[in-house]
User: Fold this.
Amino acid sequence: MRSLRPAQPLFQKTAKQAAMVTEQHVAQLQGQLEAAKQNTVDTQQKVVLQERRLQRAKQESEDARKQLAPLKARLEEVQGVDRPAAEAAMAEVAALRGKNAVLQAQLQAQSVQLEAANQAVRTAQLQKIEVTQQMVALQQGHLRGNEQAARQAVYAAEVKMIEAGRQKAVHEAELQQIEVTMKEAAHHAAQLQSDYEHLHGLEQHAHQQQPSMCMTLHVAYVGVGRWWDLKVCEQAGGMQ
Assistant:
């Protein structure tokens, strides 16, 4: 009867090679897990940075909105004040118009950065799915100890992904709030335009009733992109 003893060294060699391949696969998987964790951390840091930028833009928009209310009152009194005060009010209107343009540009830039953050989150999610699939393959290979470590790494990555998603939601809410604030500023700008038209009509009526020497001031209107010629008329009694 033939002995099977000579075949045992070959079997042991094959098993040893398979174990080495499995260890290499585990090391590669652990490297991929570390890369996925780092991508998640980087994404979270980007979201936090963008949230701070949005907060600054929101504060600037709120400041511009607060400046519109007293400016409206000053413009309503433009016929009753002296010439330097009227010119100062018009200069403030021009400055607010430029500030609104800057806020619009910042809002557009934040929208682009938010889309980039969303793409980074999606990429990290795909990496996590790939690692999970490889975990299933390891489970089939009966690598229980390495499987437990990999499971813990995947769970940590999932927790960080959830936090990144929460930060992204806060980021989107801040962006929506800025858009609402900009709409409110546009509404105040429309009211200012109506006030300018009313003042212009009053000046024309006064000019028809009693001709006088008039000085034309070039007025820049906030947020509309239109220019108005506001005539300040001087008579013997002062400003009209």
Observations:
- The two ends are 128 Å apart (CA to CA).
- Confidence is low (pLDDT under 50) at residues 211-240.
